[in-house]
Amino acid sequence: MMTRREGPAKVTGAARYSADMRLPGTLYARILRSPHPHARIAGIDASRAAALPGVRAVLSSANSPAIGWHESSRLFDSTLRYIGDEVAAIAADTPELAEDAARLIEVRYEPLAFDLDGERRKPKLEQRGDIARGLREADVVLEAEYRTQTALHNALEPHGCTALWQGDRLTVYESTQGIFAVRNEVAEKLGLAAEHVRLITEHMGGGFGAKQIAWKHTVIAALLAQRTGRPVQLMLERTAENLASGNRNATRQKLRLAAKRDGTLTAIDVRIDLEQGAYSVGGEDSDVIGTYLTLYRCANVRAEQTALATHLGPAVAFRAPGYAEGNFALESAIDELAERLDMDAIDLRLRNYTTADQREGKSFTSPESLRRCIARTAQAIEWQRKRPGLGFAAHDWAAGGGWPPAQARVEFRSGKARVIVGVQDIGTGSRTALAQIAAEALAIPCDAVEVELGDTAPGLYGPTSAGSATLATLGPAIHEAARAAKAEGSAVAERRDNPKDRSIRTCGAQAVELSVERDTGEVIVKRVVAAHDSGRIVNPLLHASQVIGGITQALGYALSEERIVDARLGEVLNANLEEYKIPTLADIPEIINVSESMPDTEANPTGAKGCGEPPIIPTAAAIANAIHSATGLRIRELPITRDKLINGVR
User: What is d(CA 423, CA 431) in angstroms, rounded to the nearest whole number?
Assistant: First the structure.
């Protein structure tokens, strides 16, 4: 089995992350942030900070360029819209000095009324068939409301960069999921030609969706570097990371499911409110309604979602945005419906199995893959041996890749094949999997292939690592370039479009076995079984890592993680890793990955699809269903904490 190429560098400390850059003369920056959820800056005096020995530059709304940001704001705006909004920035000789100087900036705030309930924005609606008719045809109608919490990404590595200028050209060492996307946005904000900005991401410690866009810190670092004539490193501390760099939006989902006695779904009707936060930052389009429209066969569906603007930090994409939230509600409701119909929960899902994308009106390229995942999961968990504490959930997701343009060059140098792509390895092992695809196409050992990525300088455009699309997008381009290079010595290929007449999806199923301590409310997850269709599994070790990582993150989403806000003050109370409860090693159960390789050559020539996001999607619903099986309690709100279970028992 091929192990991770970057593994030795990471475990020995040789791998360089954004915070590891030590360029000669580097300055360190810190940002002063708003202490109010909504306020106007009446005045700002940075003279004491600027006079501190070792402080090299100060930026604020008083002296910074009028760079537009978000829909109606600026880089440093005079109106602040959440606790954590950027007020000013300092560049100094040391990080500690920058922090001290930031505290010397005197700001006169005019506090304004703030809203945590949310101003409703324009709704997004999709529907088919006739909901009223579907409800009339039903023998059973389930009505329920489900809620999911605001969750924080908390990647091991926070957002941050090191920026330096060479003449009129800017180089940024950035922790990002999209070197070209960030390069283009930074260039636009600074009024530069895109080719005058170079983005480099050698390694990164996770992103989970929050690092697929340009955030303010990159432009701030660039401006400070420009003013001082020295490199500037700006890394967010953990509190700032949890306040100002995105979150998974909370939802309230009001759902009606209607079915005939035999289990046939006749109507799905859902109305969803989702918390957007203070700004629409881009990249946060959580498609909560998506799974309602595609997972099960149903002729009559109405799905509507409405964003709520609040005076809290902005939402952004978070691993399977929308689908993790929507799946918890839909798959919990399917189990509730099965109970009312006195049907087996898996039998009800299979009764409404679909082989076509009802949203697009196309057949799936792998129409039977979800059925195979369901069967493998049920067999591995011994579903037919009924016992308390078993729960099940299925899911779907896109992950077909094909986001154009995606380019790859393959050439031969010094007795080795060299693959050059404009994509970044966000911790998933892209260097390894892409080398395997090239080696196979060239019919040479994998050790004879070198992969260069994470740099915009070669000019080969690569997509943002989002939507579980990296391997499915770049793999085919590398495969084609390698085959051409065998004949020509060097070749550049661009990824072709996905098939127009078929729909590509990934999907899967998970089952959970657990117990609940009735006196304490402690949920003890014993094991999680997972089967996911990722097309062809190029590297089983990397695939298993994604499954384990996604389920681990989902355990926190289901049982412990939640941003807590003081409603009186608009203040986040747990913007840290002490009070924000992510799973630890002691919380992780046995995870059994029974996924099988199912090459989908109709999707692309490599047959591979994505696997980064799917494993996080169905876990929360499977846990909720298992808790109901163990206790008889139906908890419709995440996270399922001990107090909810104890109160339910009482």
Answer: 10
